[in-house]
Amino acid sequence: MLTKEKPTSLSVEKLKLSIVRHLRTTLASNEHVASQNTWWQATCFALNEEIFENAWSTFKQTRLDHCARTVNYLSLEFLIGRLTTNNLINLGLEDKVRQALNELGQDINAISGEERDPSLGNGGLGRLAACFMDSLVTLEYPAVGYGLHYQYGLFRQGIKNGEQVEYPDNWRDYGYPFEVCRSSFALDIPLYGHVETYYQGDTMRKRWVPSQYLRGVPWDIPVVGFEVKNVNTLRLWECRAVNEFDLNQFNQGCFASALHEKVKAESVTQVLYPNDESEMGKELRLIQQYFLCACSVRDIINRHKEHFASLDNLCDTNVMQLNDTHPAIAIPELMRILLDEEGIEWDKAWKISQRCFAYTNHTLLPEALETWPVDLIAKVLPRHIEIINEINYLFLSQVVEKQWPGDQEKLIKLSIFEEGYPRQVRMANLSVIGSYKVNGVAKLHTQLVKSDLFPEFDALFPDRLVNVTNGVTPRRWLRQCNPALAQLISANIGPQWQKDLSLLAGVEKYATDKKFVQQYADIKLANKQKLANYIKDNLAIDVSTEAIFDVQIKRLHEYKRQHLNLLHILTLYRRLLADPNYDMHSRVFIFAAKAAPGYRLAKDIIYAINKVAAVINSDERIKGKIKVVFLPDYSVTLAELIIPAADVSEQISTAGKEASGTGNMKLGLNGALTLGTLDGANVEIAEEVGDEHAFIFGLTVDQVNALKASGYRPQDYIAQNDELKAVVDWLCGDKFTPEEPGRLSSIAHSLVQGGDPYLVLADFAAYVEAQAQLDKAYRNRTAWLHSTILNTARLGKFSSDRSIEDYVRDIWHLKKVSVK
User: Fold this and answer.
1) Do 444 and 559 share a domain, yes or no?
2) Do 567 and 617 sit in the same domain of this protein?
3) 3-state SS assignment for residue 71
4) Which of 215, 383, 555, 603 is catalytic?
5) Using CB atoms within 10 A of its CB, is residue 481 exposed (0-12), middle (13-18) or buried (19+)?
6) Model confidence pLDDT, tens digit, residues 42-85
7) I need a surface site. Which of 93, 304, 607, 734 has the fewest CB within 10 A?
8) Which residues form the signal peptide (predicted)?
9) Residue 744's domain spans which residues?
């Protein structure tokens, strides 16, 4: 056992009785005919008896403890992954439930495998939110996560003839037993309409008169703490129509029209990030963001009013953390309620509001800094655009003008409004102005936020911008995904590391212990075999566990540079064709990523990887020295399979473009060595593990800026490197797409004629050299294993528990609330 089980009244016998009772009564089945999915749901309902009792106790204790300050984490994404095993581990019931199911003739692994990943997020942003929720409850801090209850989420990715195709991911087809609908807390949310001016005595007031309402229905998912009784809540809002069905239309034979309002409303929470290339798509995405914020802010206020007569002390009992700019419209929404509904005068309302919000910036990419057309906001949220105008006017006139009198450039740059056609609202500027704290997510990222992205804001508010380096929960990303390694670590240093990851430092002394090293190596090999079996079963590709498993798993985006990885693969392939005896260790290159549906070049890169894979994997001349694998439909569950098996962690974004990265932390924690640029959290990982235990290459942030300033010419790098020219030419021909010559040329065009915006060609030679060093290092198995063990031992800093304690100390100022 990895942990000492918590005291609980749930014995094996009681668990058996509870599972069977739910099988028969809740699910109308029995032990003789139930499917595995039915057994899974019955097991979850049995667990819920413990979970929801603790959830009520947590809620009660938080209220009794003088309405302890709560962090409300607003995020469009919560990529929580499967919860069955996670909840069993955190409840300390894994062994008991395994035994109970075994005595009932069922296998816990098969049962838990029935759960589908909740499709509630896309990538790092959503997974970070899930890790933070896990850490908050484990550390006994009161928290509510607020998100949206998507019907289809992002999308289910398929690969057809090498190309990404998107399918709806109806993850709740057969219900989801860990969630409960809280219909009694439903809210009606206004949209459109106009604003009226009226007088209350001598005071001019504003009143929003909406022309439409949407109904927000909350679904709660309990977030279970590890080795504590605390259970926090993830509240997800589902959008429904206020009037779902028009009986008169139906009786007249207009069946589709009868359901028009229902279909229109439900579209708001059907899909994560609806494609906004069309005007209708933009409007839907804005409504989606406002719907999240309006429901959440109103819910927070309603909770507060259960105990307090006014909102004067709202900021003392609640902090609202904006996870990126998606929830930024919550700022004018709270101001609207304070001004128009509570009758609070502007200065006091602004003071309350600003002390309620904190904002996390997740990107330095200009195109990712969210803006909305002024006309669109005015149409959908007419009162909010007035409030944003007033916030901007007062900020520019009272703050910026005072600091830099007459400086028009500063006024233009710091304004919430971006002039042009169409005129835009800068949500990042609104978030910084409307929050009392703003944080970056890695040391380098925060430095760049201060120096490059928001230097004027940093000058105006020198204490507002702070750093909180991201982290990952060790319960999910070591204990759950790599149980054999977790068991080995606990057997040698004890299980306490699961709540204090810094204790992994105790593993370092075993890095030269022959028995430990062999056990560590055996675990890695077993994990590689498990992944190899999955690849064989799902893609019919044979891969050798003796090969280096080189992994790049993350969202598909140019700045993450999966195409740099691809160019190196082509280089190795070309060398092997020229010399079949070329000296290299066998390598399996493993990709998993989704591209945004409207991101054409990203989808072309996926297509190129698959087409290159098809040719290389079937070429007997290279004797299996290279295999290329693209695993479709990347998810938390797939990551839990890949990460423990990885030998190499590819973190190769252009320096200065990755805010943090958390995949690098998960992979390093599980013994993969980082091959990366000095970008995001890679910088801190290299500092912790030592440069000799990672493979760092490429331009630094300063060198990137200098190269761009001097006039970057990608053609020069092509001209100077024959290998590079040859593989880029391959992409322009028919080597990998004989049926469609030139089908991969868009990638080459982006690199050469397109100006290579992410400096792939500039970093190519250094990347190839780093790969050669890695190849050489892997052959010294003793030294390689020593480095992998040190990576595990030295990455204790990158726990989300540490991140949360940083937030609590520097931003949120929460107090623990323990449930006894």
Assistant:
1) no
2) yes
3) strand
4) 555
5) buried
6) 999 999 998 988 877 777 777 676 678 999 999 999 999 999 99
7) 734
8) none
9) 476-798
